[in-house]
Each structure stands twice: as structure tokens, then as C-alpha cells.
Write a structure and sequence with these properties.
Largest sheet: 2 strands, antiparallel
Strand content: under 5%
Order of helices and strands: HHHHHHHHHHHHEEHHHH
Shape: globular
Distance between the termini: 66 Å
Strand order of the largest sheet: 1-2
């Protein structure tokens, strides 16, 4: 889901700034860094790294974290309306997982020298991006199942290679996240399968309608075509990204076509067919103008989603303030205790 983060154009002002010639020591550090990347080594937070590598990671990881947090909103809206207690419990667990993923990722980004407050401020001011998929509405209960099947399925396809990302804190966080995303995908598929096999004609029509609306946005999640992806080549050179946008999209489509047959739904692409020469499915044209519009802030729910996050942040200010006050109180108490002489010394 987060290939899009690597396709964000850098700040034009930063691009215009002339780069200073590296010193001899910096050049040597760069050579060592390149050798480690070529050898497939992991880079730890305290290791030397080029500033561009650091900035790219901060942008990608923070936008990944923002996507997890904003992604709680479309499904959280359905917790109180889930059709059974079982589905309610599953959805609560899933939304809670997404919040945890955001926290893991903010912590990983903080190891690069940024602050959580700065990252969240960037999100709230509209300066930082998050995955375009979370700007679409969830109109029916079937949408929740389709998000699990298609959106989380795309997330797994995208995120498993990040478990081998060259930046070790990010790679380690992704191992647990991918395990939980697998559960998310399975529960979505199970919810749809139940409706398609045991549901009414109206419910089956509801599932097909949700698939029709979410299919194209889900395959846009992998980002623009490789020849239109400005930062992908460098990210792959650094080992941040392991598989190209087009290859990830092709793998996802191939897997999903077979799953759709099991469900008994039709994917809304008449051009979808197997290409023996490519060993992948061909698909119809993607409306990249829609993708750019949604990424740019003009999707169906962009303003609604962002406003909801800002309201939640402001409403939770007292909790953060209380937690900080408690932490300061504990630190002061510890300092006083540690500063007192031992009883034997006092005598």
C-alpha cells in the first residue's frame, strides 16, 4: 500500500539548493555505506547514512504510519453496526491492530531523528501524504469485507518485501505488521465468502457492488507505472524498495483473479485476461488522473478523514498532557530518592 510514499516528489526548494562537495571522510563513509548496501547488510539507526537516504526513509515510514492511523477511520465507522457479535469483535481487533502499526512505524521513524509531533503536524497541515485508498467511503458492510480482501491483500503484497528493507528498524517492524495484515486479509475474505455462499441475493449484489467500487482504487495503491515513478530507482538502489510498482501490481492481480473465482464475484475489468508470454494477467487502462486527484487532496473523503484525525488529536490533548505530567512527577520522585544518602551513611 505504501509504494505511493516513495513516489512523492521531493521539495523543489531543496532540489534547487546546491550540494556542497563531500569531504574526504564523507566520501569514505559513503563508500562504506554503498558497500554494505551492495552486500545486502542492514543499516541500523546509529550507523552513518547519506542524508538523502535518511530523508527518504523519514518520508516513507511516516507516510506509512499516517496511512495506518487514517486507515482506522473507514472501518471504525462500522464497529457499532457490524451484523454479529463475532464480526464486531473481529473488527475491533483489526482497528486496534492498525493503531498499533502506526505506533510501531512512528517509533521507527523517530530513530532517524524526527519527532512524532513533527510527523503528526505534517499530516494535520496536509503537508504529509497517506495512502489514497483511505479517502474512499465505506457505504455498506460489504465494503468492510472488501477492504480486508483487496486493500489488506494489496498491503501484504507491498509490505512483505519491506521485511527485507535495508533500514533494520523498519524491516523489524514490518515482520509483525505483515503477520497481523495476513489476519486482516483472511477475515475480509471470510466475511465476503459468508455473504456470497449463505447470504441473500441482495447481500450478494451488495458484495459485487463493493468489489466494483474498490477494485480500481486497490490496484492504484501500488503507485504509478515504473516509468512515471520518480524516486523508485533510487529507493531500489538503496534496498528500501525491493520490487517495482508494476511487478507488485501484476502479482496482486494474478492472485486476486483466482480468489475472485472462489468468491464468485466478477472483477470490473473486461480487458482482464491471462497473457501466456508475460505469465501475468493483462488489465485495462488505469485512470491515473483519479489517482493524482485523490493523492492531491480532492478525493471523496480527503477533507472528512483529515478533519477527523485533527479532532481526535485535539480531543486527546488532555490525555497527553496528563501522561507527561505523570512522567515528570515520577522522574522528580526518582531523582529525590536517588539523591538521598543511604541510611548507614546518614548515621
Amino acid at each position: 500500500m505504501y509504494t505511493q510514499a516513495m513516489d512523492t516528489h521531493p521539495d523543489p526548494a531543496a532540489a534547487r539548493a546546491p550540494a556542497a562537495a563531500p569531504s574526504e571522510r564523507e566520501a569514505e563513509l559513503q563508500r562504506r555505506f554503498d558497500a554494505r548496501i551492495d552486500a545486502g547488510d542492514f543499516i541500523e539507526a546509529k550507523d552513518w547514512m547519506p542524508e538523502d537516504y535518511r530523508r527518504t526513509l523519514v518520508r516513507q515510514i511516516s507516510q506509512h504510519a499516517h496511512s495506518e492511523i487514517v486507515g482506522m477511520l473507514p472501518e471504525g465507522n462500522w464497529i457499532s453496526r457490524a451484523p454479529t457479535l463475532k464480526r464486531k469483535a473481529i473488527l475491533i481487533a483489526k482497528v486496534q491492530d492498525e493503531g498499533g502499526h502506526g505506533l510501531y512505524l512512528y517509533a521507527a521513524a523517530e530513530t532517524l531523528g524526527t519527532s512524532r509531533d513533527a510527523m503528526i503536524d505534517g499530516l494535520h497541515r496536509g503537508k504529509a501524504k497517506y495512502s489514497s485508498i483511505f479517502n474512499y467511503p465505506t457505504l455498506t458492510w460489504a465494503d468492510v469485507g472488501v477492504i480486508g480482501w483487496l486493500v489488506d491483500g494489496a498491503a501484504i503484497m507491498n509490505q512483505v518485501p519491506i521485511c527485507r528493507c535495508s533500514f533494520a528498524p523498519y524491516a523489524r517492524a514490518m515482520i509483525r505488521i505483515c503477520r497481523e495484515e495476513s489476519f486482516h486479509q483472511r477475515q475480509g475474505f471470510d466475511a465476503l465468502l459468508t455473504m456470497m455462499r449463505d447470504g441473500t441475493d441482495e447481500q450478494r449484489a451488495m458484495v459485487q457492488d463493493a468489489v466494483d467500487r474498490w477494485w480500481w482504487p486497490s490496484i492504484m495503491m501500488f503507485g504509478p507505472p515504473d516509468d512515471q515513478s520518480p524516486n523508485s530507482a533510487q529507493s531500489m538502489r538503496w534496498g528500501i524498495k525491493r520490487v517495482s510498482n508494476d511487478e507488485l501490481r501484476a502479482r496482486f492481480i494474478d492472485a486476486t483473479v483466482e480468489q475472485a473465482k472462489v468468491l464468485g464475484v466478477t472483477l470490473p475489468d473486461p480487458a482482464l485476461k491471462w497473457n501466456e508470454a508475460r505469465q501475468h494477467h493483462d488489465h485495462g487502462p488505469i485512470d491515473w488522473s483519479e489517482f493524482k486527484r485523490v493523492i492531491g487532496g480532492d478525493g471523496p473523503c480527503n477533507r472528512e478523514r483529515l478533519a477527523a484525525r485533527v479532532r481526535a488529536w485535539e480531543a486527546g490533548a488532555w490525555v497527553r498532557e496528563a501522561a507527561l505530567a505523570h512522567a515528570r512527577k515520577r522522574a522528580d520522585t526518582r531523582a529525590r530518592v536517588e539523591g538521598q544518602p543511604e541510611e548507614s551513611e546518614a548515621r
